């Protein structure tokens, strides 16, 4: 029996990377997937591939969320799963951070998650419950000073996840909310990091800059399998939790420019 049979799911930032892997596995498990992204070409192609539906959504704008959830409810009559996956990263330390890059990172990652939860909760409640999965990062638990705004956004997502989970539990809504904290997964975002760091003239991240995981990069499905579990009824007693998937990166040296094994470390 498919683990998500009959469920309606929205995945944000689903055209590429981790979101695309979530969408593919959701469809394989029987979900009706609404692929959303600002990248229309890639989003439409993925929706066609998995037999889902594409809708353009820029997660930064609450009005677009309102319209999306209303359209999904009008067409499908229910919403069971939301993956707040869209996120962006900009290089900047606590001293070199700029107002524009800070606001951009916060708007996509944190604001997008806030608006997604706000509009998904009533829709899910109307259908008897649901599951919200927020994509955070080990940047919420590990200092990564070269992407300071990203750390702030992901820390906000982790804390906000608990607030949403408790709100839904206290309201007996049967809606769960959990955060997932990856690192070192082979996606366009991770592949873009060495160039971004070089442009910002920060110390090289070396191999660790590929996203840690001390021996290799992970694959998008390494995260998507956890997301499917959290989306399914198998995790019905799991809410308000943070799930780290990083092959030890956050409990070893992680992504630290100048760290051990890096020529700039001096040790
Ligand atoms: N890849 C990793 O190792 C890793 C590690 C930690 C956290 N994450 C998080 O996982 C999520 C996905 O990461 P990824 O590596 O797949 O990134 P990615 O850059 O490869 O893909 C992100 C997708 O989000 C879309 N997007 C960007 N801005 C958007 C907006 N305003 N509205 C809607 N969609 C938008 C992009 O078009 C793209 O399709 C992000 O939240 C990221 O921070 C990834």
Write the layout of secondary structure elements.
Layout: E1 8-11, H1 17-28, E2 32-37, H2 40-50, E3 53-56, H3 62-76, E4 81-84, H4 99-126, E5 130-135, H5 148-170, E6 175-182, H6 188-199, H7 220-231, E7 242-245
Parallel strand pairs: 1-2, 1-4, 2-3, 4-5, 5-6, 6-7
Bound molecules: nicotinamide-adenine-dinucleotide.
Describe the structure.
With 267 residues, this protein is of the alpha/beta class. It has a single domain (8-252), classed as Rossmann fold (3-Layer(aba) Sandwich), CATH 3.40.50.720. It has 7 helices and 7 strands. The chain has helices at residues 17-28, 40-50, 62-76, 99-126, 148-170, 188-199, 220-231; strands at residues 8-11, 32-37, 53-56, 81-84, 130-135, 175-182, 242-245. The protein has a 7-stranded parallel sheet with strand order 3-2-1-4-5-6-7, sandwiched between helices. Strand 5, helix 5 (148-170) and strand 6 (175-182) form a beta-alpha-beta unit. Helix 1 (17-28) packs across helix 7 (220-231). The longest helix has 28 residues, at 99-126. The protein is globular and about 50 Å long. The structure holds nicotinamide-adenine-dinucleotide (NAD). Residues 12-13, 15-19, 37-39, 57-60, 85-88, 108-109, 135, 137, 182-185, 187-190, 211 line the site of nicotinamide-adenine-dinucleotide.
